[in-house]
Specification:
The chain is mainly beta. It is built from 7 helices and 32 strands. The strands form 8 sheets. Strands 3-2-1-32 form a 4-stranded antiparallel β-sheet, with no helix packed on it. Strands 4-5-6-7 form a 4-stranded antiparallel β-sheet. It has a 4-stranded antiparallel β-sheet with strand order 8-9-10-11, covered by helices on one side.
Length: 490
């Protein structure tokens, strides 16, 4: 039996913890439970993309008003265009988060925006005017390549040291063999690679560290030379996509173990440890096989894995394959480690699971907000009795929802789940061409944190099809004060 897999659920922070959160030494909060007692979000920063849409506009960072008491609620109130065209902004992170809580000199000031296609990394100042952030610095790809050989930057996490760690998915030619981890200092100067020479992963994507267990684990998407052209099943057979987790010593950067997830773990993308830093358990969403895989430390001190949740593929008609995977793209864990949420981009549903027992997740909520089998599409799903069906997806404010749910973000108190629907411009065009033509959108899902349950908030819709420069693709979301997918506790 794995050690450390028990989860102690505490619904509310104690009075002492509430007081402690108001006397923080550095950025963020002293514990995940203190974060749950933090203030309600009022702003969301969203990466918005024109790259790959046919529009010759720069990508931009949108500021969305999510304060229900504001006259501009559910509206984009500011847009910060990047100085270049063709970046493909994707994921984002902070220069400092709760891992720097013990450092009074640190401040959560700069939002770090890696550009997946161009290789640039932007630092955006959000502190001077949170409603209208400003560009602070650009890390040019030529500098990164010259000093490290790395390209295609993806995930950024702050470190307690003040440095910033960025996973990179390949070299300048798009070969996965050239991937690794870029280390930037607090002023966004390139320091070099984080991992030790010869300890680069087979493929790169996301990562999460758990310092009390002296471990960092990374996941694997695929070779940029493959995924930037669109998804081709033959590329999977040809070994251009990943199925491994890579276990590193922390903070030393030695690759200690590689976990082969096999045929049940193809394309492992987002990866998260439980937020409680004492826990040695986490999950990774495997997109193509649509499994949530749990990883954990064994009694011998090594790491193992097992499938925790499976989304069955649907038998379908009028699609590119006879069976359609859910395609789990993004997932997250509530700050009290009680609920896990994930999005099925192709099927079109968002799910909530109770993971108080991480070995036995229980489905507690599900909501349909798009997908390939929605009513009105040409794709039909087949039931076990052979009859065909489609899903009724509700309109919001008289508008039909497009695409499928992709990136998700949870409020600190766990009561509101935000969702956008763009994955990557090339894949958007391939699977949901209407997203490229009409733009993405953002939804808010109300969460029942007591018994479990999900419901669409009919009063909230951000339509990125109505942007001044034309429809754009909305991807990852961040709050100015941090969230459950950016902050790590030590």
């Amino acid at each position: 039996m794995a050690s450390g897999t028990d989860v102690v659920v505490v619904e509310h922070a104690t009075v002492a913890e509430n007081n402690a959160c108001c006397k923080n030494k550095g950025p963020g909060y002293g514990s995940p439970l203190q974060a749950m007692a933090g203030p309600r979000e009022k702003l969301l920063y969203v990466t918005c993309i024109y790259t790959g849409t046919g529009k010759e506009n720069p990508d931009y960072l949108a500021t969305v008003d999510v304060d229900p008491n504001s006259p501009t609620y559910s509206k984009v109130i500011h847009r910060l265009p990047m100085p270049h065209i063709g970046d493909e902004l994707h994921h984002s992170g902070w220069n400092a988060c709760s891992s720097c809580y013990g450092d009074p000199s640190a401040a959560r000031r700069y939002l770090v925006l890696p550009s997946l296609v161009s290789g640039r990394i932007y630092a955006v100042d959000t502190l001077k005017d949170p409603r209208a952030p400003a560009l602070y610095k650009v890390v040019e790809p030529a500098d990164i390549i010259q000093k490290t050989g790395l390209a295609y930057p993806h995930t950024a996490h702050c470190l307690a040291s003040g440095d910033i760690l960025v996973s990179c998915l390949g070299d300048k030619k798009g070969k996965a063999e050239g991937n690794g981890f870029l280390l930037l200092d607090s002023e966004f100067n390139v320091k070099g690679r984080w991992e030790k020479p010869g300890h680069s992963p087979l493929f790169g994507y996301d990562f999460w560290y758990q310092p009390r267990h002296k471990t960092m684990i990374s996941s694997s998407w695929g070779a940029p030379s493959a995924f930037t052209k669109g998804f081709n099943l033959q590329d999977v057979s040809d070994g251009l996509y990943g199925r491994h987790l890579h276990v590193y010593s922390w903070p030393d950067g030695e690759l200690q173990q590689t976990l082969d997830l096999g045929s049940t773990g193809l394309l492992p993308l987002e990866i998260r440890f439980l937020h409680d830093p004492s826990k040695d358990t986490g999950f990774v969403g495997c997109a193509l096989t649509s499994n949530m895989v749990r990883f954990f430390k064994t009694a011998e001190g090594t790491w193992n894995h097992e499938v925790a949740i499976s989304v069955k593929p649907l038998k379908v008609q009028n699609w590119i394959l006879p069976e359609m995977p859910g395609l789990i793209t993004d997932f997250l864990i509530s700050l009290n480690d009680r609920f896990l949420y994930f999005a099925n981009w192709l099927h079109g549903d968002i799910r909530q699971y109770n993971i108080e027992d991480p070995q036995n997740p229980k489905l507690t909520g599900q909501v349909w907000v798009g997908g390939q089998i929605r009513q009105g599409s040409s794709v039909l799903a087949e039931a076990e009795d052979g009859k065909t069906y489609q899903i009724n997806v509700p309109e919001i404010q008289g508008k039909q929802l497009r695409g499928g749910p992709q990136m998700i973000q949870l409020s600190l108190d766990g009561k509101r789940l935000y969702a956008t629907n763009s994955l990557f411009s090339t894949w958007d065009r391939q699977f949901y061409p209407e997203l490229v033509e009409k733009g993405a959108h953002m939804l808010q899902i109300d969460v029942d944190t007591e018994k479990g349950g999900l419901a669409i908030n009919p009063n909230f819709l951000v339509d990125f099809g109505a942007e001044p420069e034309g429809p754009s693709l909305a991807h990852e979301m961040r709050y100015p004060g941090g969230d459950c997918t950016s902050d790590i506790w030590i």
